[in-house]
Design goal:
By secondary structure, this protein is mainly β. Among the domains are: 71 residues; 70 residues, no CATH class; 34 residues, no CATH class; 178 residues, Jelly Rolls (Sandwich). The chain has three helices and 34 strands. A five-stranded antiparallel sheet has the order 9-10-11-12-13, with no helix packed on it. A hairpin with a 5-residue loop joins strand 14 and strand 15. It is elongated.
């Protein structure tokens, strides 16, 4: 058919016979028609020729060829190889794991073999001959004497002597007993099984050295190890080192041993025991005896040490023994400290703690039953030699129980010395009294004994007995005299009683003063105490005895009272009226005397320093002060006055330091004077 233009059919077109395309100039049939993504037909070149034959070539260079019809081939598995088809076009070739009875695919154990780039090598030590080799392999040929390879029985197949050149230079190849001559070096780990003997017929040999040449802080190690192959138990022996020698009968005998044991086998709480043993005999039988035993604790992190064997054994420490534990116990009858040096031996008990407590030496008596009155608790005996070099006891300190009743215990402490005939005689005795805190003391022995006290003797008790007379009191100066036969008087008290008599007298005068608003003290003016007008402000307003000090200008130095003789100012009695207000008034005496560093410098321009030592506040008996009488008293002042000392009377408003009123005050003074009667 031929069409002009473009005709598009939207339906399926079928052709019953062959379809040819004209106008296609193809001389060779080397193209195929294809359809692109848009449905367009196109031609495409194809490789020249068709498949004419199929062939397979095996590893043995044999070829299988199929050149006609369908190319059918069969792939068959063999021993250790399986072949099967999965799907429609997949052939699977799978290796079967090898076994002891069948060939197959096998891998190499990394424990014994190394594989790199397809190359397999045996690791150093990778083949365990114990497991891999059977039969008997002679020791001389590198075996153990119990196992051999199944491929070659060296015992049966090797005869004669195996040359040393054919042996491993680093290995001892032993068949039976072999003697090494010269020096031998065993490197790395070397295991000797069963018994190892090192012996020599030369004097001083064999000589064994364990040496490290490493440049480090660690040294050589000799380790004795027990691998029980089961759980360890308390009391297991670990290892021992035994020293044996010939006895007199030329019998090898154990003379000493070091034994290590398991004291506690508990996991994480292990503790060991190490015993140093020496042979000892009881006169008929010799046995190894523990001399030093060290036992660790499985709970308290301590190590107990036992030294010596037998109660009569002797342990000697040459040098200094330091014991740093909390306590030490000597369970023995006698401990002797001796020295051949002058002033030795010396026992020092020293406390190094930074506190207020000192060292202690305790002597205890543990009777094991109830204590009895009069029991000896402890004693110190002092012994020396007499002129014939006989041992004699020269002194003793003895402590006894005086009263053992629970809650009422008291002791008896005695100091004894040899008295002329060598007999120990008590010179000092201290006994607990019948009351709490009471101790009775006895000093001396014999009526002709002398007790000397160098220094002061203080007696605080109430009784002091001389010649069976109990003196109960000591009268001192100033005390009230007691007329009895149980007290004695001091010399000062005797002087008070017999020689010191005083005559009493008074000094009386009056004064009038207008009070200052400043509250300052006011003393007599230039006319003195006889003038009824006191108008001198002495510029101080405090009222404290032995502290308040006034500076009196020299122009008023005469306005006081000068004592003609030594005397005592014992106080004063005063009467007061405040005619200008209802305020309390204070009266005082200021003293100028050498003993208080206050004085009157006669004939100089120096002012007078005077100190308040007596003052009294007016007492109105709870009434009013305004135009009503009040009184003031001071007794027992005991102010000592030397001849020529002065006192200055003064008046002020009580407690006023500022803002006082101009009260008009009238007062009369009576000063108490005691004069010594010579």
């Amino acid at each position: 058919m031929r069409w002009i233009g473009q005709l598009i059919y939207d339906k399926i077109a079928r052709f019953r016979n062959d379809v040819y395309l004209t106008g296609v100039s193809e001389s060779a049939q080397d193209h195929v028609v294809g359809i692109d993504a848009n449905g367009k037909l196109y031609k495409q070149d194809v490789a020249a020729g068709d498949i004419t034959a199929v062939s397979f070539t095996g590893d043995d260079s044999q070829t299988i060829t199929d050149s006609a019809g369908s190319a059918d081939f069969t792939v068959t598995g063999g021993t250790g190889i399986s072949c099967f088809v999965s799907g429609s076009n997949v052939i699977n070739v799978d290796g079967t794991n090898a076994s002891t009875s069948a060939k197959g695919v096998a891998s190499f154990s990394s424990d014994n073999f190394a594989v790199s780039s397809g190359a397999v090598t045996i690791k150093s030590g990778g083949v365990d001959l114990t497991d891999e080799v059977t039969g008997t392999l002679p020791i001389a040929n590198g075996g153990t004497g119990s196992t051999s390879t199944t491929y070659c029985d060296l015992t049966a197949n090797v005869t004669g002597v195996l040359p040393s050149a054919n042996m491993d230079a680093d290995t001892a190849h032993l068949s039976g007993v072999q003697t090494f001559t010269g020096s031998k070096v065993f490197q790395s780990s070397t295991t000797f099984q069963e018994n190892v003997f090192i012996e020599s017929s030369d004097a001083g040999k064999p000589f064994v050295t364990i040496k490290t040449t490493a440049n480090s802080t660690s040294g050589s190690t000799l380790q004795l190890e027990k691998d029980k192959g089961a759980a360890g138990a308390d009391g297991d022996d670990i290892a021992n080192i035994t020293w044996r020698a010939d006895n007199a009968a030329q019998e090898l005998t154990n003379f000493s041993r070091i034994l290590g044991e398991v004291a506690t086998a508990a996991d994480t709480d292990e503790a060991g025991k190490l015993s140093f043993q020496i042979a000892a005999s009881n006169g008929s039988t010799s046995n190894l005896r523990d001399t030093i035993v060290l036992t660790g604790s499985g709970a308290n992190d301590i190590v107990d040490v036992s030294v010596g064997y037998g109660a009569t054994s002797t342990t000697t420490v040459n040098g200094i023994l330091n014991v740093s534990g909390a306590s030490s116990t000597f369970d023995c009858d006698t401990v002797t400290f001796q020295s051949s040096n002058a002033d030795d031996p010396k026992i020092v008990i020293q406390n190094n703690t930074n506190d207020n407590q000192g060292a202690r030496l305790q002597l205890k008596k543990n009777r094991g039953a109830a204590q009895v009155n009069g029991d000896n608790i402890a004693e110190f005996g002092m012994f020396g030699e007499d002129s014939n070099q006989n041992q004699a006891q020269y002194g003793k300190i003895l402590v006894k129980s005086n009263e053992v009743t629970d809650g009422q215990e008291s002791g008896d402490f005695r100091v004894q010395v040899a008295a002329h005939d060598g007999t120990l005689t008590q010179g000092l005795k201290l006994v607990g009294g019948s009351e709490s805190g009471e101790v009775d003391v006895e000093i001396g022995a014999g009526t002709s004994s002398v007790t000397t006290i160098t220094g002061d003797l203080t007696v605080s008790g109430s009784d002091l007995t001389f010649d069976s007379v109990a003196l109960t009191a000591i009268q001192t100066s100033g005390e009230t005299f007691a007329d009895n036969d149980t007290s004695v008087m001091t010399s000062a008290a005797i002087d008070d009683r017999i020689n010191a008599k005083y005559a009493s007298s008074t000094i009386s005068f009056t004064g009038q003063s207008t009070m200052l608003s400043s509250g300052n003290w006011v003393m007599p003016g230039k006319p003195g105490i006889s003038s009824h007008t006191w108008n001198k402000d002495i510029s101080v307003n405090t009222e404290t005895n032995d502290s308040t000090t006034a500076v009196i200008p020299r122009q008023w130095g005469h306005a006081g009272v000068r004592m003609p003789n030594a005397c005592i100012i014992d106080g004063m009695s005063c009467a007061i009226v405040n005619a200008g207000g209802n305020r309390q008034v204070t009266l005082g005496l200021f003293f100028a005397r050498a003993s208080d560093s206050t004085n009157v410098d006669w004939g100089t321009t120096n002012d007078i320093g005077a100190k308040l030592q007596i003052h009294a506040d007016a007492n109105n008996e709870s009434g009013s002060y305004s135009n009503r009488p009040a009184h003031a008293e001071v007794t027992g002042s005991n102010i000592a006055m030397a001849a020529g000392d002065m006192f200055y009377p003064a008046i002020k408003l009580t407690g006023v330091t500022s803002g006082g009123n101009a009260d008009n005050v009238y007062a009369s003074f009576t000063v108490h004077v005691k004069t010594l009667i010579s």
